[in-house]
What does this fold into?
Amino acid sequence: MSIENQAPDYIRAIAPYQGGRPIAEIARLYGFTEDSIVKLASNENPLGMSPKARQAMLDASADLGRYPDGNGHDLKLAISRRFDLPMDWITLGNGSNDILELVAHAFLRPGRESLYAAHSFAVYALATQANGGTSVVVPAKANDLGHDLDAMRAAVTSKTAVVWVANPNNPTGSFIEAKSLKAFIDGIPEDVLVVLDEAYTEYLEPSEHYDAFDWVRHHPNLLVSRSFSKAYGLAGLRVGYGVAQPAVTDLLNRVRQPFNVNSLAQAAASAALFDEEFLAESAALNREGLVQLSRGLRDLGLHVLPSRGNFVLVDLSTSASFVAALDAVTGDAGKPLGVRCFEALLAKGVITRPVANYGLPKHLRVSVGLREENAVFLDAMQALARGEK
Ligand SMILES: Cc1ncc(COP(=O)(O)O)c(C=O)c1O
It folds into this structure.
């Protein structure tokens, strides 16, 4: 038997995660200079990282000959102070992606089910499959493509081990208000772990905020994950965390790598947590960018889903004239509409994200950038709408 056949079927069947295309790669392929490319593909913070986080990271770089603190004491202390949480409720991750994988590793195995909504974050499916679990995908609501919580509750069986909810969700941008979300969590059996993925929570308006950490106090089966990659601007450092009661936290810590979060990330995240000014600036820029992108796309006759994240999802099929113009530019009706638009934009130096792998072949996801970057994207879309290559 060949060596690759020694891996379990469910591992060999994994379709690798498709991330946003890096600027350097597109520059190389299309002959652009790197600084002429606009990347609106990975829901990053267009402001970069907070100056305080940068300084903390530079200070920590003096000691890189040593291993990081494997228990992440200082960062856990910072999170615990910032949100008034016990330190033994916190698990640190190499990005919140790591937390999601630790959950799957600890709770899923062949014969156990993992439940999530259609068009929700791709890693739920990947992490499930990597551990031999069975994915149960619940159709989304027709209006905003958001989670249908009633249908998700009804899909829970005695085999369900983990239920994943992203709020706001990526790539749809849909948001579940606190009351319905809390009622949903209250209705899940105690022996099923609920993962509430709050990677974009810092972008919510004050009126939408809720405190899921407080819910953890009453739910030993709830884990809330948070990311430093979005509003905190630390995507390249890879750091996130999970908050759950000690029993779940202890399990996650058993399966994580001893040094899963590096020293620079720990130092930068500890400082970023308290840089309120930077967070507020990031949220304000995002608010304006969402309006700018949504207006610009609607002016082209395209339907933009309401988004509570740092990106918008646009349905390209909603304007017949745009589709006809794109057909004229790309001349290849074989590929999904979203992929063709993505490729036509690449040729203009703008990187966006096709979402056909999320079951959305006619949509395109566009991250909020700086005002000028959003304008470059909208100009490129207008040129496409005029049928210009
Ligand atoms: C909903 C959601 N959860 C988690 C993540 C993972 O982010 P990170 O690993 O950078 O914290 C992402 C990244 O795009 C996301 O969209």
